[in-house]
TrEMBL record:
This is Tail specific protease domain-containing protein. Residues 89-279 form the Tail specific protease domain. InterPro entries: ClpP/crotonase-like_dom_sf, Tail-specific_protease. It comes from Asanoa siamensis. Gene3D superfamilies: 2-enoyl-CoA Hydratase, Chain A, domain 1, 3.30.750.44. SUPFAM superfamilies: ClpP/crotonase (SSF52096). Pfam families: Peptidase_S41.
Amino acid sequence: MAYRRGMTPTVGEVAGRLTEWLVRLMPAGDRRDALVAGLTAAFGADTDLISAAGCAAISAAAWPHARHVELFFEPGGTEPASDSPGEWPPPDPAAVRARAAGVSRVSRLDDGTGVVRIDTLDAVALAQPYVDAAFGLLRGARRLVVDLRGNGGGDPATVAWIAGWLLGDRSVKLSDVVSESGVREWWTPARPPGTALSQDAYLLVGPGTYSSGEALAYHLRARSRVTVVGVATPGAADHVLPIRLAPTVLAQVPRAYVRDAVTGGNWEGKGVVPDVPSGAADALDVALGLP
């Protein structure tokens, strides 16, 4: 869909551009068809100029079908609309080091419980030393608590790396990522014998557990490795790319979905539902009170 040069696009034009990209990138199926049909019906004739409110309305309409779809209004934007799929910017190694790859807590409580909090899933090449250091410190703990309540996602390779610490020394298939171009398998790495952690483990989730953060919780729970405590997660299971729909509108557009190797499904639209419900703020205390 071409835009009138120098003019602000309408809501209908932006929604139309989004549906074109959905057809181009998102794997074919009922979910894509329902998403495209819903956006077209809701906004196809909308002649209001695009704004933050219009972007929010389109995002909200997409939510029942694809929870990763999100539009961001950038009023000062000047880049032209995308002609080819975008890429995520490479991580800043200094920024990753400054946040210790999202490992914000590692502690051993008085009762012998080991607690690790991971707030993001940075690229595995940068995150691995921090993940290994954190889980290495949990050796000998009486039990484990993995806190993902603030984990907004990131690299699926880091999901596999962390899962390997908990699922055993042998390589385990976690998932297929299905796109229009094919299927990519994700496996945990094989570990040196006797190095994986085997203690009972609890995993904390909440509204801030998103995307690949949800993947880690889902894959571990599907293999009965953890007891999940907290609040159901948002339910965003797609892999996405950044696409500029207009100079002032950047979107996240699904390009693939996850299929767990055990369940054959995923958490899209449902979230990871806790085994033990609790308030998000209380989840650690609740987990520590479990036998």
